Amino acid sequence: DQQVKQNSPSLSVQEGRISILNCDYTNSMFDYFLWYKKYPAEGPTFLISISSIKDKNEDGRFTVFLNKSAKHLSLHIVPSQPGDSAVYFCAAKFSGAQKLVFGQGTRLTINP
Amino acid sequence: DTEVTQTPKHLVMGMTNKKSLKCEQHMGHRAMYWYKQKAKKPPELMFVYSYEKLSINESVPSRFSPECPNSSLLNLHLHALQPEDSALYLCASSQAQGNTIYFGEGSWLTVV
Asked: What are B109's strand-pairing partners?
C-alpha cells in the first residue's frame, strides 16, 4: 500500500520555464511534508517543507503548495535551471514521528 | 553542503567479510538514522536511534548491526552480507522531535 505517490516518473522542462512536480498521499493523518532533491551517487538534499497548517511555503525559486482536501502537494520551481536536473522525492510524516514515507520519485530534466 | 559525513564513500566486500560504515554529525541532533536505497527506488528506513538508544528497527536482518557510540556518531556493522545487499546506504539525522531529516552523501556498498 503506497501511501505517498508520485505518478510521473519523469518530467522534461525547458530552461527558464516553470517546473511543477506533483505528489499525492492517502493518509490524512500525515501533517508534515518534505521535498528532497537527489543527484546520482549522492544522498538526498532537503529542499523545502510544509506543515499541514499551511497551504503554501516559499523559499527562493521553490514553492510548495498543499491541498489537504485533495491530499495533494506540488513543488514549483521557477525559473528552472539546468542544475535542477535531478530526481525529486516527496516525503510525508506524522509530526514528531521519526519515519519518513517517500514517494517513488520524479526525474526532472531541464533542457537548454 | 551536508553536515552529515559518511565514510567510506565506496566499499567492496566479500560475503564472508566484516566491515563497518561510519557516520558523523555535528548539528547537535539527537536522532540518527540508517536508510538503504537501491537504484530507481526511494530510500528505505532501516534503523533509528533516539538519544543514543535504538528506537526503530524495521525488521532488518541481523547481518546488519547498528551502533550509536555517542550522540554524534553512528555505525553500521556488516557481516556475511549477500550480493542483494549491494546498495547506497544513507545516514541521516534530525532533532529528536524534529520534522526535517538531513541526509549524508551515502556509502556505496558492493557485495561480491
From this structure: B11, B87
Answer yes or no: are the C-beta atoms of A66 and A50 closer than 8 Å: yes
| B74 at A interface, C-beta within 8 A | no
Residues of A with CB under 8 A from a CB of B: 32, 34, 36, 41-46, 49, 51, 89, 93, 95-96, 98-100, 102-105
Please provide the size of chain A in residues. 112
Residue B20: half-sphere exposure toward Cβ, Cα within 13 Å: 11
The span from the CA of B19 to the CA of B10, in Å, is 12
DSSP letters for A50-107: EETT-SEEEETTEEEEEETTTTEEEEEESS--GGG-EEEEEEEE-TT----EE---EE
Contacts A102 to B, Cβ<8 Å: 42-43
Q: Is B49 at the interface with chain A, CB within 8 A? A: no
Instruction: Quick: pLDDT tens for B22-69.
Output: 999 999 999 999 999 998 899 999 999 999 999 999 999 999 999 999
Which residue in the block uniquely carries the three cell numbers 525488521? B59
Q: What is the DSSP letter of B85?
A: G
